[in-house]
Amino acid sequence: MYLVCGEALYDVFLDSENGSGVLRLEAHPGGSPYNVAIGIARLGGKAALLTGMSHDMLGQRLFDILSREGVATDHLVRLGRRTTVSLVGVDAQGHPAYTFYGLGSADCSITPEDIQPPGPGITGLHFGSFSLVVKPVADAFAQLVDQPGGRFVSVDPNVRTNVEPNVDLWRERLSHYASRADLIKISAEDSGILFPGQSFETLAADWISGGCRLVIVTDGGDDVLAWTASGASARVTPDSFPVVDTVGAGDSFQAALLAKLAADGDGNPKAAVASMDAASLSGLLGYAISAARVTCGRRGADLPRAADL
């Protein structure tokens, strides 16, 4: 089972206004780690979510959805703080822009003392997005990834400079995780923010020399690149497909990666990565691309189920 660590919130989409100044809003449960946990479960994998979750009405809805989707809730930390809300505007190309209302909210407020050591049933940890940098939750997760146990570790920075504009802090936190990670997935956009002017190949080589076993770079609808510590590499070009919006596409890709690695490794994603050659690496990327394609054809972060693929 993967323990997915990070935020749980509501994305509120700004739809339109009727001429009188009244806005139409549409709210979807979200947060990158929340989406990834649900995505793993929808694809037949096992996932639990570790986050601070409010007792307010939005927090209870988030909890109920997790239960309905088959995500384990025993690692949640329930708090008397509000649920984070993120306003989402979508441009003509379908790319999201976020305005964040969440500092001091439940998902940002868990401390190292709130986190119990994962049990033997947890074979993988996934971290990502603004929970890497916003305190106190960032410190709690940094201590968690340092715990011994030999678990598979995955990270996707999913940079949100509207939440934390300090790029040096993002870079510092990612470096902490990179030295402990088996898998790093990063978008070309995030790479450009954190490591401007550095080639993807050089970035991957640096991480692999530091101990990472698999590095994947996504670039929207363009080629997906990957390298392993054993020397395998792959480049997969996605087919063109209609896009409603791209909200949750990266989360779908990440969830599919983790679900397939666990399945291919018979519950041990480390074993799947260790045995990967160029053909199986290309197959992994193709599966993840298919998952992202489904989400891009839907409004909001509506991740696919196994039957959709």
TrEMBL record:
The keyword Metal-binding is annotated on this UniProt entry: no
> Is Kinase found in the keyword set?
yes
Keywords carried by this UniProt record: ATP-binding, Kinase, Nucleotide-binding, Transferase
Q: Matching PROSITE patterns, A to Z?
A: PFKB_KINASES_2
> What are the residue boundaries of the Carbohydrate kinase PfkB domain, all occurrences included?
4-302
Q: Name one GO molecular function term.
A: ATP binding
Family statement: Belongs to the carbohydrate kinase PfkB family.
- What name appears for this protein in its UniProt entry? Carbohydrate kinase
Organism, by scientific name, is Pacificispira spongiicola
Query: Where is the organism placed in the taxonomic lineage, from the top?
Result: Bacteria, Pseudomonadati, Pseudomonadota, Alphaproteobacteria, Rhodospirillales
